[in-house]
Design goal:
The chain has 209 residues and is mainly α. 82% of the residues lie in helices and 0% in strands. It has 5 helices and no strands. Helix 2 runs antiparallel to helix 4, helix 2 packs parallel to helix 5 and helix 3 runs parallel beside helix 5. It is elongated and about 85 Å long.
């Protein structure tokens, strides 16, 4: 096999490049606003959710790659997903194999869907930050005192602070969502390859069995 763990290599390459770009942006000072004392907790929460999703995605990528290697050799481990599926379809009728194949597809797709849900959660957390930012911005606006010159500076400062919260949290959620979604798409590709290769191997054995 010339391409063992190719999925893992691609996943590692993409995420290494993304991490390098993030580090470069941090060193340039472009992300310094994320540490604003008024909303660093929300930014940290978004980042922790992202790390959990990325770690889960990495674990799934590794497992799918190992499974795919076994299927490609034609001898997956008996306790693997593919091994158990092949044991179930051995000697089964075509109708039974079709039902087992549908169940196998559903099992694999359900295992990867959680990463997509975590990615979607990043967007919602960013939107929560947007709402909080607008609340902060509007909390400093008092129509009764807006006409007094001495109050304008304080209101503008609060308005700018609130808008910073809204924009930075939205940006954080959007960037991390995009990053995790790219990783998720790679995981989906691996899952499709695993399902296709496993079902084809099961059908080949079923026809010759």
């Amino acid at each position: 096999m010339q391409h063992r763990y190719l999925l893992v290599v691609r996943f590692a390459l993409i995420n290494t490049v993304a991490a390098a770009l993030l580090a470069a942006a941090w060193l340039q000072g472009w992300l310094s606003g994320l540490m604003n004392e008024r909303f660093w907790e929300l930014s940290a929460l978004i980042f922790l959710v992202f790390l959990y999703g990325l770690g889960l995605c990495a674990e799934r990528v590794w497992r799918h790659s190992v499974e795919l290697n076994g299927v490609k050799t034609g001898a997956p481990a008996p306790d693997s997903w593919a091994g158990r599926y092949l044991a179930d379809v051995a000697g089964a009728s075509p109708e039974s194999r079709a039902l087992l194949a549908d169940g196998f597809r559903l099992k694999i797709t359900n295992r990867v869907a959680i990463v997509r849900h975590i990615a979607n959660a990043l967007v919602f957390l960013g939107l929560i930050g947007t709402v909080i930012g607008f609340i902060i911005a509007l909390s400093g606006v008092d129509p009764e005192t807006a006409g007094k010159a001495e109050n304008v500076a304080a209101m503008v400062a609060t308005l700018i602070s609130g808008m910073s919260v809204a924009l930075y949290t939205t940006l954080t959620g959007a960037i991390l969502y995009t990053w995790l979604t790219i990783s998720y798409r790679m995981l989906v590709t691996g899952a499709v390859d695993l399902i296709t290769a496993t079902v084809e191997l099961g059908e080949a054995r079923g026809r010759t069995g």
